[in-house]
Write a structure and sequence with these properties.
Strand order of the largest sheet: 3-2-1-4-5-6-7
Number of helices: 15
Largest sheet: 7 strands, parallel
Radius of gyration: 21 Å
Helix content: 40-55%
Length: 373
């Protein structure tokens, strides 16, 4: 491949969208494409070292996606770097990509939704006016892209209905690199965790409303009389203090629930786990579930509107429970805690499924088609 692509993304902080971009950009570069990444916002650069050395990174230090100065910086980068394909990665980057590239000839523009848009706009903290404005911008601006992509079929189906069928749509799946996961997972745990007789539960993600860790804590509180378990939650975010208070209020035994800070390498925790839990209120396509399955770990996931059902083939390769239902989540976790054979069976089947579906050789053609009108 001798193509030239510029990706735009808000940050290189720890996060599923950022990791999915890094994998896509790195694989395209290793296949021979010339690849650059434009980082729109100020913030930490935690994941920059995970990008291939073949990839150029441009930090644009924008204060806001609505800033004309940021649009001008992006436009100057496009004119200077002259990509054949410009690809936004998440809603704000998508909007900036289209606005900044208006009128530039010989440029193909793709947008890529990495979350489920209706749920993301409907989360607490998004005012009615902001929700209306963002929906209007998406409807008016996304249709100017040459191709509209998403990482799940449900999200793509929504975009087709919302934006109309005249545009070109394409599924752009998340990618899993099993060899790399095994290499990273072999590292020692940051904090040594004793291995007793408890079933080991792990949950990884940003500590915010979307990820539903409050639901998980309410669920595991129901397990105490029924089985021995230990839970490690790995992540940082705005709800850390609230979750710490909730943990104290539920009066777990000392060390039974640990809140570990986020890390660029959470995979030793996956290796340590017997079960990985994804209690999200909504998702685009959960990287945590994909990576856990790739490492042979059984998962319990909320069957939110986009992502987990598709990944597990409607529960064939993992247990699904209704979102925001701590009782059903507790029942599913208890089922796996009590059945080591089921844990092993789901882990093996899940790993085989993601190897056959989400590795780069399986999804390469989806990414290469972005370059084709």
């Amino acid at each position: 491949m001798s193509e030239r692509v510029l990706f735009l993304i808000p940050t290189l902080n720890l996060g599923g969208a950022e990791r999915s971009l890094i994998k896509a950009a790195t694989h395209l570069a290793e296949d021979g494409a010339e690849v650059a990444v434009g980082v729109l916002s100020q913030g930490t650069r935690t994941l920059q070292d995970e990008l291939s050395r073949k990839i150029e990174i441009f930090y644009l230090d924008g204060q806001s996606a609505s800033s004309p100065l940021l649009w001008w910086k992006v436009r100057q980068l496009i004119l200077k770097w002259r990509p054949r394909l410009l690809c936004g990665w998440s809603m704000y980057a998508n909007l900036v990509a289209i606005v900044a590239s208006v009128g530039i000839p010989d440029l193909r523009v793709a947008v890529s939704e990495r979350n489920f848009l209706p749920a993301m706009l409907g989360r607490p903290g998004v005012s009615r006016a902001r929700r209306w404005l963002l929906k209007m911008l998406v409807k008016r601006i996304y249709v100017r892209a040459d191709v509209i992509t998403a990482n799940s079929e449900k999200s793509l189906h929504f975009l087709r209905r919302y934006l109309g069928r005249k545009n070109h749509y394409a599924l752009l799946p998340n990618i899993v690199d099993v060899d790399r996961l095994n290499e990273l997972g072999a590292a020692p745990l940051r904090n040594s965790l004793e291995s007793g007789r408890e079933v080991r539960l792990v949950c990884v993600g940003r500590l915010d409303y979307q990820k539903g860790f409050d639901i998980l804590l309410a669920a595991v509180a129901q397990l105490e009389p029924l089985c021995a378990w230990r839970l490690v939650i790995v992540g940082d975010g705005p709800l850390r203090m609230e979750l710490e208070q909730l943990t104290k209020g539920l009066r777990f035994r000392p060390g039974q629930v640990l809140l570990e800070p986020s890390t660029s390498n959470p995979f030793p925790y996956y290796k340590w786990a017997d079960i990985v839990v994804i209690p999200s209120r909504f998702e685009g396509f959960p990287n945590v579930a994909l990576e856990a399955m790739a490492l042979g770990k059984p998962i319990v996931a909320s069957n939110c509107r986009s992502g987990p059902s598709e990944l597990t083939c409607k529960g064939t390769f993992g247990l699904l429970v209704p979102p925001e239902n701590s009782k059903r989540l507790a029942d599913a976790v208890l089922r796996l805690c009590a059945d080591a054979t089921l844990r092993e069976t789901l882990g093996i089947a899940g790993r085989e499924h993601v190897l056959a579906t989400y590795t780069w050789p399986r999804v390469r053609s989806s990414y290469q088609r972005l370059f084709t009108p």
